Amino acid sequence: MTGIVITGHGQYAQGVMSAIQLVAGVPEQVQVVNFTKGEGIEELKSHMIQAINALESDDVLLMTDILGGSPFNVAVQLLTEPVGKNLKVVAGANMASIVQALFIRENVPFEQLPAEVIQAGKEGIVDVSAMMEGTM
């Protein structure tokens, strides 16, 4: 089973995991890493490495809150470092994309997982007003 690390600014990771647990229960092989006020990049990197190593899987999907932010930058940096795991990074993770990752990770090859997760995230964003007006 692919391991998942969710990371983001403030309490994003912990908050989205709290919401997911209400919808989907407590998932296995998932770690959260918050990037809180006053924390430095090296501390964030250390926490991310600890989270990666806490997972039993050799394949780990890192899901970050926003492209270009510090959690994203650290995740990308880890792609080039020997952390002992196969890593993939998805930026802009929302609840729809994370839930999708949790549900399909056992049945989708690791190489295909990011594309599937990104598609679910996009489909989870809907202009409901336009839909109700029949313009979608």
Automatic annotation (TrEMBL):
UniProt keyword list: Cytoplasm, Kinase, Phosphotransferase system, Sugar transport, Transferase, Transport
PROSITE patterns xref list: PTS_EIIA_TYPE_4 (PS51096)
InterPro entries listed in its UniProt record: Bacterial_PTS_sugar_comp (IPR051471), PTS_EIIA_man-typ (IPR004701), PTS_EIIA_man-typ_sf (IPR036662), PTS_IIA_man (IPR033887)
Protein's cellular compartments: Cytoplasm
Domain of life of the organism encoding this protein: Bacteria
Span of domain PTS EIIA type-4: 1-125
Family matches, as PANTHER family: PTS PERMEASE-RELATED-RELATED, PTS SYSTEM MANNOSE-SPECIFIC EIIAB COMPONENT-RELATED
Name of protein: PTS sugar transporter subunit IIA
